[in-house]
Amino acid sequence: MWYTASAFFKAQQTGSGQEAAPLWEEVLLLVEAPDDEAAASQAAELARRREHQYTVSPRASDVLRWAFVKIERVQMIEGPLADGAEIFSRFLRTAEAESLLKPFDDDTHDKKA
Predict the structure, then answer these.
(1) In which domain, by residue range, is 77 found?
(2) What is the pLDDT of residue 58?
(3) Distances in Å between the alpha carbon of 67 and those of 53, 72, 84?
(4) What is the pLDDT of residue 113?
(5) More confident of the two residues 6 and 14
(6) Domains identified in the chain, total number
(7) What is the CB neighbour count within 10 angstroms for residue 73?
(8) Residues in Cβ contact with 81 at an 8 Å cutoff, skipping those fewer than 6 apart
(9) Tens digit of pLDDT for each residue in 16-57?
(10) Tens-place pLDDT, residues 57-90
(11) Please, is 106 exposed, middle or buried when counting C-beta atoms within 10 Å of its C-beta (0-12, 13-18, 19+)?
(12) 46: closest CA among 70, 29, 58?
């Protein structure tokens, strides 16, 4: 059976001496497994392999490290994989939808409050 797994990652910068707000990423992974539990376990292993870090400034001490946090949900894909197949869906609260619809680099709305 095929599943989608929603993996959360958190990026934290170190070395600059300034505490920057973390950056979050949600990644949807496609996993083939016999059941939900196996899919979650396999997805967690795949996500751990994606952890990495890199230098973010000319100073070698400024490093951004992406760390796997958790598998948030696993969903079985109903029906065959084909063009137009629905592979993920979820219900959202108004605040969640508004957050997702807000451009990533648009901080002007937050500053007006």
Answers:
(1) 2-112
(2) 75
(3) 9, 14, 32
(4) 42
(5) 6
(6) 1
(7) 16
(8) 2, 87
(9) 666 678 899 999 999 999 999 999 999 999 999 999 999 887
(10) 776 678 889 999 999 999 999 888 889 988 888 8
(11) exposed
(12) 29
**Distance between CA atoms of 29 and 43, rounded to whole angstroms?**
7
DSSP assignment of 84-104 equals T---------HHHHHHHHS-T
| Residue 61, phi-psi category: left (phi > 0), alpha (psi -120 to 50), beta (remainder) | alpha
User: Of how many residues is the chain composed?
Assistant: 113
Q: For residues 34 and 45, what is the distance between their CA atoms, to the nearest angstrom?
A: 16
Paired tokens of 12: 């934290």
**Which tokens is 44 given?**
């967690």
The continuous run of DSSP H or E covering 36 comes out as: helix 36-49
Tokens describing residue 45: 């292993």
Distance of CA 35 to the CA centre of its chain: 22
Q: Which of 59, 57, 47, 53 is nearest to 12 (CA)?
A: 53
DSSP 22: P
